[in-house]
Amino acid sequence: MPGNCGCNTCAGASPCELNRDVCQLKELVRSQGKQLGQLVRHMKMGCKKPPKESTIKGLSPCLKCLQPDVLYHLGMDTATMDFPKVFGDVRFVCMGGTAERMERFAYKIMKELSLKLNPATTLRNMAEPGHRYALYKVGPVLCVSHGMGCPSISILLHELIKMLHHAKCQDPVFIRIGTCGGIGIEPGTVVISSEALDGMLNPYYELIVQGKVVLYSSKLDQCLANELLSLAIPCEDEFCTIIGKTICTNDFYEGQTRLDGAFCDYTNQSKTAYLQSVQCQGVVNFDMESTAFAALTNRANIRSAVVSMCIVNRMEGDQILSPPECLSEWEKRPQVLVARYIRKEFLKRDDDSDTEAYEEVCPSACLEGDKAI
Ligand code: URA
């Protein structure tokens, strides 16, 4: 005798019918859950007021009067570009010396964040009209080249900080991904700066303003530095990551006690003694941008970190003798660490509607041939 379900295999009570009901109910719950999720997302979006101001602090009161504000070296201005629309979503600003390195990093980040690009398009250098720096935008990440030395990075930071302020950005994090000269460390090592020190080993960036010396603190964000260090995977990574103090100099040659510059008024012995003495004080590397980078981001209430790749051990020599293939392979190392951080932060977002927005064709990447967005 067939069961209520009409099935010949079960009789009396109808497990088939029950099964079907359970399946239907499950489907109903699943689809209602989906609708509910969408509703909550839309409500969240509806309730979320666009921010009135950026979280950037301490800026010049004169900015209010600049209409338009011309970011001369970036080739942009607030009259012809809608900054909140183009840059309002920026959460990470990654900076490195050369345009090519930062373009390669932009493509890496695109892959890491699973942002897709139409195969016929390429990323666009948005700072091309300024003829100075290169700037690529990939979703919430800006990848910018800063050139060499404190003056170059300082000019760029003034304009980037104003840009993010005009764009009403919220809590952006700045990371310099650079190269450095190591002190007693192997070339290829990744160094996270715990502190940025000037040539006198003081944690300051010195600027002469109106004929007077002004000192700005060049302390770096310890939590961010430790967080980046925690993302190293010693048993998996093909490189070592260490943390230590960085001396920032105004010169690559004499400023970093090299013997191979055009001029040299000291001896090999005094060079070795100097390197040993700074090493004893916890210094692990030299660079040429970290004090200005730390000081300007500090002044703006922006969290920042410096992650560099060591290209020479200064205890062993001055010239960069590693083959170009090695250098270009090592270049990826600090990028791996920073990409891990960005990916982790990006996925942490509670508002998954943003992730959806980035998933498709990367609408927030600035592409060659496109308009600003
Ligand atoms: N950058 C520096 O400032 N010094 C080096 O030795 C290498 C890179």
Task: Report on this structure.
The chain has 373 residues and is of the alpha/beta class. The chain has one domain (54-351): 3-Layer(aba) Sandwich (Rossmann fold), CATH 3.40.50.1580. It is built from 10 helices and 12 strands. The chain has helices at residues 15-47, 83-87, 99-112, 150-166, 222-230, 268-280, 290-299, 324-330, 332-348, 352-359, and strands at residues 70-71, 76-77, 92-96, 135-138, 141-145, 173-182, 190-197, 204-209, 212-217, 241-248, 283-287, 303-313. The strands form 3 sheets. The protein has a 5-stranded mixed beta barrel with strand order 6-11-10-7-12, surrounded by 4 helices. It has a two-stranded antiparallel sheet with strand order 1-2. A two-stranded antiparallel sheet has the order 8-9. Bound molecules: uracil. Uracil is lined by residues 179-181, 252, 256, 286-288, 311-312.
Short summary:
This protein has 373 residues and is an alpha/beta fold. It has ten helices and twelve strands.
Tags for this model:
373 residues; 12 strands; five-stranded mixed β-barrel; binds uracil; disordered N terminus; Nucleoside_phosphorylase_CS; 10 helices; Rossmann fold
Distance between the termini: 68 Å
CATH superfamily: Nucleoside phosphorylase domain
**Beta fraction of the residues?**
15-25%
The CATH C-level class name = Alpha Beta
* Rg over C-alpha atoms, rounded to the nearest angstrom: 26 Å
Q: Examine the secondary-structure arrangement and name the CATH architecture.
A: 3-Layer(aba) Sandwich
Q: Outline, from the CA principal axes?
A: globular
Bound molecules: uracil
Mean pLDDT figure: 89
Helix content: 25-40%
How many helix segments? 10
- Catalogue the unreliable spans: 1-5, 359-363
Structural class: alpha/beta
Largest sheet: 5 strands, mixed, barrel
How many DSSP E strands? 12
Spatial strand order of the main sheet: 6-11-10-7-12
CATH topology: Rossmann fold
Give the total of domains: 1
What is the N-to-C succession of helices and strands?
Answer: HEEHEHEEHEEEEHEHEHEHHH
